[in-house]
Amino acid sequence: MSSPIPLPDPAPDWLGWLPPRLVAVDVETTGLAETDRVVSVGAVALATATLADGAPEIACHHLIFDPGRASHPRAEAVHGYDDWLLRHQDPAAAHAGALADLLAGADLIVAHNAAFDLGFLNRELAAAGLAPVSTKVYCTMEAYRRRGEKGRAALDVVCRRIGLSRVGAHHGALEDAWLALRAYLWLQACPVAVARPDLAAPSNLRPVPPRPDGALPPRA
Q1: Conformational region of residue 118, where left means phi above 0, alpha means psi within -120 to 50, and beta covers everything else
Q2: Got the DSSP string for 150-201?
Q3: What is the pLDDT of residue 1?
Q4: What percent of the chain has pLDDT over 90?
Q5: Would you call 211 helix, strand, or coil by DSSP?
Q6: pLDDT tier at 13, thresholds 50, 70, 90
Q7: Distance in angstroms (rounded) separating the CA atoms of residues 50 and 101
């Protein structure tokens, strides 16, 4: 009598309600007003089927831009990029098409305080003559509040709840995108941990000449 052919292990329950491909995003900006601009974008794309193997496949994207204006002092204290460095970078429009394609290729976009991030991204896309993001969006901040968790729902609070934290004092767009991804997977009862990516400098970071003494010259 021949031995029975072993059946493959069934997919875990939590995998059934995850989209095939999701992209977690975060932006850092010059401030909070609608007239402010994006300084940097971080995105972590995940093929969710790879979670079942315990070896999730991610692709990271990290870009920095010249916003065309100086950051509010409080915003600069958050993201850590001074105006001298930023004024020597590419404008957001130079990378808007590639960013739009990345987001359009996702089944779900994840962000913490998604209204903020997607609002800024859509304004940058509009300034480049591109259509707004049409992919479905999941806000981890709103989902955390719907759980009935007490207290604030800021990203650092949610991260402490699940045993995570930033590696430094500044808010990096790529790291915060990864933290939003981890928060999403926790909210979906996924037990697989996606390792912290290499938090290298933005891939399009341009070299910066020595900073002049005294006040910076006016922007061109």
Answers
A1: alpha
A2: -S---HHHHHHHTT---SSSS--HHHHHHHHHHHHHHHTT--PPPPPPP-PP
A3: 47
A4: 81
A5: coil
A6: confident
A7: 22
Tally Cβ neighbours within 10 Å of residue 128: 16
Two tokens, residue 65: 């831009």
Q: Higher-confidence residue: 13 or 205?
A: 205
What is the model's pLDDT at position 91?
A: 98
Closest CA to 182 of 162, 208, 203: 162
Rg value, the chain, Cα = 20
Residue 214: how many other CB atoms lie within 10 Å: 6
Confidence band (pLDDT; 50, 70, 90) for 11? low
Query: 96-104 vs 114-127: helix axis angle to the nearest 10?
Result: 130
Tokens of 176: 């915060």
Extract long-range pairs of 201-210: CB within 8 Å, 24+ residues apart.
Answer: 201/62, 202/40, 202/62, 202/63, 202/64, 203/61, 203/62, 203/63, 204/63, 204/64, 204/89, 204/90, 204/95, 205/64, 205/89, 206/88, 206/89, 206/90, 207/88, 208/84, 208/85, 208/88, 209/88
Cβ contact 136:108 at 8 Å: yes
Contact at 8 Å (CB) between 18 and 109?
Answer: no
Model confidence, pTM: 0.92
pLDDT of residue 3: 54
| pLDDT of 6 over the 50 cut | no
Cβ neighbours of residue 93 closer than 8 Å, sequence gap 6 or more: 124, 127, 128
